[in-house]
Specification:
Strand order of the largest sheet: 1-2
Distance between the termini: 27 Å
Strand content: 5-15%
Radius of gyration: 22 Å
Helix content: 55-70%
Number of strands: 2
Shape: elongated
């Protein structure tokens, strides 16, 4: 199953488990993964709605400084990230980590000789 189809499955799950009729490929004890993907999808959506507001207000400001025979461009200021942005990124990554790390370790251990 591709990431795109998992994304669509998560979107349908958010509308309600009854709308998610294509879960037969997933074992019953792993249905919580779909709920996690739906939560992560929603979290990333919130994050993507916040970032344009942040970037439109000038995240980095520069000054041009002339000194004798050269001109330097220096950073005058950097706007701090809204606290919600790193929190939403951390939330999404924290939710995904246990679902990706276990299969990754299961597949990589034999390749690493473990």
């Amino acid at each position: 199953m591709s990431l795109g189809s998992l994304h669509e499955l998560a979107r349908r799950w958010r509308r309600g488990p009854a709308d998610c009729t294509d879960c037969s490929w997933l074992l019953d004890h792993q249905l919580h993964v779909v709920e996690t993907l739906a939560h992560v999808d929603h979290t990333i959506g919130r994050l993507l709605r916040l970032t344009p507001d942040y970037t439109e207000h000038g995240t980095i400001t520069f000054d041009v400084v002339s000194r004798a025979d050269r001109v330097d461009v220096v950073v005058r200021g950097i706007a701090p990230l809204p606290q919600a942005i790193p929190r939403l990124v951390a939330d999404a990554l924290t939710q995904l980590r246990p679902h990706w790390s276990t299969p990754f370790m299961r597949r990589s251990r034999p390749l690493l000789g473990g």
